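Sequence in, structure out. Go.
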Amino acid sequence: MNRVELIDAIASETGLTKKDIDATLKSFMAVVSNTLQKKESVQLIGFGTFTTVDKPEREGRNPANGEKMKIAASTAVKFKAGTALKEKVNTKPAKAKKSKKK
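Output:
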């Protein structure tokens, strides 16, 4: 599912306009990004938690020629799914009932 499909799905489920959903989604992403940039976590009970992890500088190899190279230290984003999300993902979706032809 891409951004447009997500906006369409939310709009059809809530009855809100796509414009309002798009603005809300942009705001959500900005707030989460800014919070993670400050090295703080974002916890959505039942959905999951976004956190950051500092990765130290390390040595790697250039895949083109095999030479050793330094890989710079960086901050990575980590997501840990909440219990409700894990349960939902691990439950098979209900099958649509087939209509019987007469």
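Check: The longest strand covers residues 48-55. Strands lie at 42-44, 48-55, 58-61, 68-71, 74-81.
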